[in-house]
Amino acid sequence: MKLTMRLGADSYDIIISRGALGHLAELTDLSRRKVFIVTDSGVPAQYAETVRAQCADGCIFTVPQGEGSKSLKVYTTVLQAMLEFGMTRADLVVAVGGGVVGDMAGFAAATYMRGIQFINCPTTTLSQFDSSIGGKVAVDLGETKNIVGAFWQPKLVVIDPDTLDTLPRRQYVNGLAEALKMGLIADPELFDIFENEDPFAKIEEVIYHSLIIKKNIVERDVTEKGDRAALNFGHTLGHGIEAVRGIRGRRTRGFYHGECVALGMLPMIEDAKLKKRVRAVYRKLGLPLTAGYDKAAALEAMRHDKKTRGGKVKLVKVPGVGCWRIDTVDMAVLETLVLGKPIPPMPDAK
Ligand SMILES: NC(=O)c1ccc[n+]([C@@H]2O[C@H](COP(=O)([O-])OP(=O)(O)OC[C@H]3O[C@@H](n4cnc5c(N)ncnc54)[C@H](O)[C@@H]3O)[C@@H](O)[C@H]2O)c1
Description:
The protein is α/β, with parallel strands linked by helices.
């Protein structure tokens, strides 16, 4: 299956096909340029090796697994290795891994010699549904996520659903949360797969539906000035939760990104019946329904979020399946949603 992201001169194909990783050389030139393959220590080594075996002059650079690799420190080691490998502006970076590898290697490609070609081969559900397309590449700065980054479109995205066979179940479900988000904001058919069918058995349909939604939104609004903000459904609060309870670096207790997004979506659904249906899907998938987290610390993290400006915050709300709206509210309103406390009355002006 092939989709095309239509962005004028920056257009690119998205290939979805079982076994596609083994046919990368048929999709792009791997023989007349150097190929720098970035992967991480948790991605089965055979995937990057499958790519390297098709290159005339390829090397694999493996970073430690985990969000900790989306750091300036690891990014610098990648740039250094690219330089030592003799990469020029005519050469190619290939990411083989999840969102961490894609975001960080994409940012390295965006900035090395002012930008070189980049191909993304996502191997997690989250990256296959969502993060591999759209061109947002970034690293974190301490606890602040994605604050150093760029818009840098890949030249090609190759999605091989076979790679999901080795993904641990919790990681698999983590990505399904992002697909569920797409269904909620834009696609009742996709939501129906989650509610009434088996999304694991229908994974190729879930990938296809999710990518179509993201592609349509990105094509309308590539740099997130309008509609693309819908993709942040669940993310404003999700990022706050992630900052205080997320899995960072070597920490093993905490929530994954998709789990934080899932928790962040629930307060943004005002309709009680819909919220009940969404909670039933969470139960079916094994997503968290409640989280013991330091709400004050999460709110503090949100105050530093790049999307929170001048004490105002944009919240994406879903009033019904397949539709969304943005409410620009004071932080106090978000505090009420998170803490469940009424807003204190405004003091009399005397
Ligand atoms: N750029 C975007 O538009 C965008 C969108 C959403 C999320 N993100 C980012 O994506 C990141 C999360 O991505 P993720 O959920 O893919 O996490 P991840 O990249 O950390 O991968 C999760 C884990 O799975 C392992 N893994 C990867 N593929 C595997 C496979 N096929 N088999 C077995 N193990 C495998 C990895 O080693 C890692 O330990 C976050 O940093 C988030 O900010 C970016």
